[in-house]
């Protein structure tokens, strides 16, 4: 058995000065530096779908701009009620690039606790995976006064309160047509002490 020697400690912290300003900027810089390289790979039926950094970056920018079009401002909370999937990552990155803060909800969380988390955190928009998650929100809409829009990955849209991911992207396209630098400007404006995410633990709701 061969033991690897420990990695040397780098006591020179000057490299920190050259790091991207924040994670949103880091993501956008990576997209620009390696647009044709594979960024993600996810299961799609019996096959796997590969996504390049440019493809992911374009989609994130469209969704981030869509959130801005809905009136989302820096540090406002945006919820994600979904299982782990590619669209979850896109939503999280879009929220981040818009300067907002992600609030996560486990898909197995019951309707009452889901409503509590989204209400307590004052979420303004919620990404909902499917009809099961949408129903939790619709049934408790009166308890969610701050939620202006629900964006679903796979669920049924109503053309009003509940829209699809493609609908949000279209709003983003229209927003970027008027403000092409909106996403990069919002990302660059994120400060180190700005709220990035709220995570409710299993005991949060009592």
From TrEMBL:
Pfam families the UniProt entry points to: AMP-binding (PF00501)
Domain AMP-dependent synthetase/ligase: 29-206
Any one GO molecular function term: ligase activity
Sorted UniProt keywords: Ligase
Domain of life: Bacteria
Presence of the UniProt keyword Ligase in the record: yes
Protein name, entry field: Long-chain fatty acid--CoA ligase
Species of provenance: Nocardioides guangzhouensis
Organism taxonomic ancestry: Bacteria, Bacillati, Actinomycetota, Actinomycetes, Propionibacteriales
